[in-house]
Specification:
Length: 64
């Protein structure tokens, strides 16, 4: 968890059971899953693939 705290927060998204934070940690995308009712971390997922960031894009408003 210490490494996550040193990562850069990028975005947040929500599902029925979780709120999920996306971080950049040493070039990896890291998702941290928090359970809605307990607010405890249930699991992590990490990848170097930019496709991990795709679910977060729908929450970004781009002004043109």
């Amino acid at each position: 968890m210490e490494k996550i705290l040193k990562g850069n927060f990028l975005a947040e998204r929500h599902t029925d059971d979780y709120y999920i934070n996306l971080y950049d940690v040493d070039g990896y995308y890291v998702e941290v899953f928090f359970h809605h009712s307990t607010h405890l971390i249930t699991h992590f997922r990490a990848s170097i693939q930019t496709s991990m960031a795709l679910p977060y894009l729908e929450n970004i408003d781009v002004l043109v």
